[in-house]
Amino acid sequence: MYDSTCHVDQAIAEKIQERNRCQRNGESTTKLNVAIRSLLPNLKEKIDQLKDSLLRAVSARQITQLEGDRRQNLLDDLLTRQRQLQATFKNDGAEPDVIRSSLMTGGIQQGKTNPWLLEESEETRGLGFDDIRQQQQRIVQEQDAGLDALSSILSRQKQMGQEIGNELEEQNEIIDDLANLVENTDDKLRAQTRRVTLVDRKSTSCGMLVVIVLLLIAIVVVAVWPKH
């Protein structure tokens, strides 16, 4: 479609140039004017079709945003040339640069690849709109499946995290109980230690008292014991 539009653009430029030459030579330009008048609406229609096609391609994400911008620049260039050709046609005898550029561009484009297809990928080359749409649907389905798998993994990780948290809480409760048990045992041990110390002191006091009593008895016995 782009190539066809460029060909119409080139044809208009050629006919305007020929008409201007005929005017300078005093020849009739009626047929050329009729042909140009019929080609100008054709050029506008083709440019409108390109605009609609580009809009659909960008909306359906059949091309990247970068490629859409590149093609929009080509369209803007065609629109500028169309307006200039129309103005030139109304201004008899004028040959602005747009005619020369159209003729030169047309000659250069022969044998070259359509610039709208320069960035087409191998995956979409040769495919129609329906095939590209189905391919995109498959890609979206694969992406959805990947997101579902990722969501499942994240859900399992969340569940594992909750289980680990519960286990830590149980371990903390066990540690708290063990700390309380150790503290109670330590208190009991200190109490028993105090009791043993008290009993030991009492035992020591009683032993000393017995020794003193025995010494007194011995003294008394020695004192009263008859000497022979």
From TrEMBL:
Lineage: superkingdom: Eukaryota
Major site of localization recorded for this protein: membrane
TM spans (from-to): 204-225
Family matches, as Pfam families: SNARE (PF05739)
Coiled coil: 168-195
Presence of the UniProt keyword Phosphoprotein in the record: yes
Compartment annotation: Membrane
Source organism of the structure: Sphenodon punctatus (Tuatara)
Organism classification: Eukaryota, Metazoa, Chordata, Craniata, Vertebrata
Domain T-SNARE coiled-coil homology stretches: 137-199
Reported function: Vesicle trafficking protein that functions in the early secretory pathway, possibly by mediating retrograde transport from cis-Golgi membranes to the ER.
GO cellular component, one term: perinuclear region of cytoplasm
Entry-linked SMART domains: t_SNARE
Name of the protein in its database record: Syntaxin-8
SUPFAM superfamilies for this protein: SNARE fusion complex
Gene3D superfamilies for the chain: 1.20.5.110
Membrane topology: Single-pass type IV membrane protein
Keywords attached to this entry: Coiled coil, Membrane, Phosphoprotein, Transmembrane, Transmembrane helix, Transport, Ubl conjugation
A biological-process GO annotation: cellular response to type II interferon
Similarity annotation: Belongs to the syntaxin family.
